[in-house]
Amino acid sequence: MKGKQNTPDGVSPKKLGPAIRTVTPDDDRLPPSHTPSSPGTDIIARKGFIGNIDFLKGPKKGDEDEELKRFSNFPPASAAAVVDMIIAKNKEIGKYPFPHCVTYTLWATDNVNTYGKSLSQIFALVGLRLVKGTIDEVELIPLNELKRPRIDVVVSCSGVFRDLFMNQMTLIDQGMKMAAEAKEPPEMNYIRTHAFQMTQELSCPLREAATRVFSNAAGSYCANIAAWIKSNEWENETQLQRQFLARRCYAFNSDKPGMMEYKSEAFKAALRNADVTIQNLDLNDILSITDVPHYYDADPTKVIAALRFDGKIPTCLLAKTTSDGIDVHSLAETIRIDSMSKILSPDYYERILKQNQDGVKEISDCLRNMLGWAVTSGNVDTFLFEIASSIFMEDKEMCTRLREKDNVSFRNLLATFVKAGEQGYWETSDAKIRRLRELKKFAESAFD
Ligand code: BEZ
Ligand code: MG
Predict the structure, then answer these.
(1) How many angstroms separate the alpha carbon of residue 191 from the centre of ligand 2?
(2) What pTM value is reported for the model?
């Protein structure tokens, strides 16, 4: 067959013109004409969540093949198991049987890498599933199968998720509307209960009061809280919370697909009911919750406390994927463990200071992210800042080392300590803050 240059449909390459190169199936010197699609790969989770990434990409309607049927078993049993953990963890912390409303942040990469893990948890909380054999129709799991109340969910989609996964936003929105309209006892359906309250609060019909899928305006990304924290120019939490609400309050509505509508009052009314906040960590991206800023940028915990009539801070949880499945932890314990085993552990900080060019930057970024979490969630123990200060600021030799290695990051580190002290997230003596301010001035006057 070598040398035969016809395309599979028999068209001679000459007729296609000289610029077009023909690839025949038996020409093994040439790469394939396209890269086949493949699932995202969470290096830890790998298999066993939702059927396949093709569900997320949304195969064509009417596609009836065997593969499609396999993908449509959603949510998988593993999602119900995570929901049981969320309920149990909240019961341990909050001392009541069921959360009434949970907020979820949907990240694009996390859902791609884990076959729709957090999406499946939302389905399981509400008691939703795909209609068998379809990937674009949702139905309620009957209460006698669910065996617990339907839990309300406020969904906050990252801008990238909004850009990529409109089909999935549609399914959640349709499911929430279905739940609100289901004639079920109020004590077994918190979506319906809350939606009825919201018809009064917002003077709107029931379907509209079931609006729960939010994101940024089209073309806009994130709450930009992390940018404020990085600048150190922010003044108080209220200012940041206003910004969060203003940027993240654009609602998706499957009755009017294709637009994100500014729905500030609906967003506030939905968040006001939340008693749990949760995010799934994408372990492909990070080792520790203090490594990156985007999780706290998306965290609504204190925004909710400010909106709630009782002022209560919601239980703040994180779901972490391990090789055994998913574990649900409180944010406070996660930050404690992550920071004590990373930047506050001598083994760790000595290694990065010796081996990494950007070791000081890593320490500075971690501390700033801890401050970010303290601001958005209040789940950072003040003693963590105290330990950090005793390691990096009170040892003269260490200060000199940090300054000489990377003065820019050293200045940023100092600025974070000063801000944490001034704003009360680090409860320490005035004398310590004064000394750090002086050190900061000195570092600012030095050459980089
Ligand atoms: C995401 O949606 O996956 C994403 C967005 C911003 C930063 C990181 C991840
Ligand atoms: Mg309630």
Answers:
(1) 9
(2) 0.86
